[in-house]
Design goal:
With 478 residues, the protein is an alpha/beta fold. 38% of the residues lie in helices and 19% in strands. It is built from 14 helices and 18 strands. A hairpin with a 2-residue loop joins β17 and β18. The protein is globular. The chain starts with a strand and ends in a 16-residue tail after the last helix.
Length: 478
């Protein structure tokens, strides 16, 4: 069987590495070396979720080498500021789950049940997630050898650096296994292929092939890189403003600062706002407009990811959010799912049917989570997303979640989440947050004995994780 890859450099490198390492020798793989066009997507950084670690592990790439070569920043929690009018919880966090959270899961459910019976709001989700404690203490998400639990995390990385790193790795390890041809010879290769994996950045959208996810009114983003900043690692922060939100993620001597905005704000005004923000919070008064990169954004996703003999991945599949990990996690998840189906059966028609069904469920679960998480959290001035109560066609799982929540005040995560990217831990955080921000009664749980005991437990465990820059990982690595 002959598989041909064509399209975006980053996604093609990831897909080529996995295909070359996982498929048998009888599968011929051709990589079409497309001329790289200058477009903003390869300039701005983007977030990768925990699946990037699964990819690195499958390739045998150490995370320390990956970080040193790409300048990637660890990402374990996202903090949202000014997204709610709650006087008790003016901010909220969505951390990645940690193995320690599994130990405390029963306690979380018991606390939810207890506060529900007492007519109080559910416990704030921030206090139940260990990665939020680590981020709050500027600690790295890498456990020492003496600490037997693993932290789930992703990376925020500049795409052109990632592309160069993966390209060099691909050439060094799988150069002989891949048939690389130039773009001018693409037509013949595509015609002779049994399967085409297309990751080309979309220039035009066919309304019959795509669905508009309608997640946000914001359509543009700008970003700058601040070197030698004094800030240590912190959660990825989103500060809501009238026209959109400012985001920042900081690491040791390195920080990314960006602004996502709607048409009410001009690009020139957005750049001025970002410069003022950098000066105020980073003391970076020499930030020039030329150092700010931009990206245009449209929230559209293909209705069918696998059509005929073409599998659309990455940019060719569409995008769900701005510079976000969900886009890349869906890409990695879809690639891993394809490999599993391909190994089970060589009947591509049957595989395509199962694949499209799985991806539709996965994409819907992501849309549900984003709409439910942010639909109730009104920014100052304008809502982030369409009001859930007036949304014309909610996905079935979201409609079920809302009806059950209104009826019972709580939904069991296992009833909603199966084999999707949105984990049970995320849904628990979502349900806690829905009650905190949308409930009629609000109470401050900070004095509760159970919350204090759990906080002490997490504080003690956090001491096993080093502060940023304190330790050198993989000392024996060249």
């Amino acid at each position: 069987m002959h598989i041909t890859l064509i399209g975006n450099k980053v996604e093609n490198s990831i897909a080529s590495c996995l295909l070359a390492s996982q498929l048998e020798e009888e599968v011929d793989i051709t990589l079409i070396n497309c001329a790289q066009k200058t477009h903003h997507r390869t300039i701005c950084s983007e977030a990768f979720g925990p699946l990037i670690r699964r990819f690195l592990n499958a390739m045998g790439i150490s995370e320390s080498k990956f970080i040193s070569k790409t300048g990637a920043l660890p990402h374990i929690s996202s903090l949202y500021v000014n997204w709610t009018k709650s006087k008790f919880h003016p901010s909220f966090a969505i951390p990645f789950p940690h193995q320690l959270d599994e130990l405390k899961h029963t306690e979380l459910l018991s606390e939810i049940d207890r506060t529900k019976k007492q007519g109080q709001s559910l416990p704030h989700p921030d206090s139940f997630y260990f990665n939020q404690v680590l981020a709050g203490q500027s600690r790295e998400p890498y456990s020492q050898y003496s600490f037997p639990f693993d932290s789930d995390y992703g990376f925020y990385v500049e795409l052109n650096k990632l592309s160069d790193f993966l390209g060099n790795y691909l050439a060094a390890n799988y150069g002989k296994k891949l048939n690389v041809v130039e773009e001018q010879d693409a037509k013949t290769c595509l015609e002779n292929s049994d399967l085409i994996i297309d990751t080309r950045t979309l220039e035009q959208f066919d309304s019959d092939e795509f669905s508009n996810t309608l997640l946000s009114q914001c359509k543009r983003a700008i970003e700058t890189d601040i070197e030698n900043c004094e800030g240590s690692y912190s959660p990825m922060q989103y500060h809501a403003i009238e026209h959109g939100w400012i985001y920042q993620i900081s690491g040791q001597n390195h920080s990314k600062l960006g602004l996502v905005f709607n048409d009410d704000l001009s690009v020139e005004s957005a750049k001025s706002l970002l410069i003022n923000y950098a000066d105020r919070y980073f003391g970076c008064n020499n930030l020039g407009v030329d150092s700010i990169h931009s990206i245009d954004y449209r929230s559209l996703v293909r209705k069918k990811i696998w059509q005929g003999k073409t599998l659309y991945l990455g940019p060719a599949m569409g995008k769900l959010e701005h510079l976000g990990s969900f886009n890349h996690d869906i890409f990695l998840s879809s690639l891993i799912n394809f490999l599993a189906l391909f190994k089970q059966s060589t009947d591509l028609n049957q595989a395509a049917q199962l694949y499209n069904q799985h991806m539709a469920e996965t994409i819907n679960s992501v849309i549900d989570f984003q709409l439910a998480m942010f639909g109730f959290a009104n920014r100052i001035g304008k809502p982030f997303a369409f009001d859930l109560s007036t949304r014309k066609a909610p996905t079935p799982s979201l409609a079920h979640l809302l009806s059950q929540w209104q009826k019972n005040g709580c939904v069991v995560a296992s009833d909603l989440v199966k084999s999707t990217l949105v984990s049970a831990e995320q849904w628990n955080a979502l349900l806690c947050g829905l009650n905190v921000f949308g409930g009629k009664k609000e109470s401050d749980q900070s004095n509760d004995e159970a919350v204090k005991a759990r906080a002490k437990f997490y504080e003690t465990c956090a001491l096993n994780f080093p502060q940023i820059g304190e330790c050198q990982r993989d000392k024996n690595e060249e």
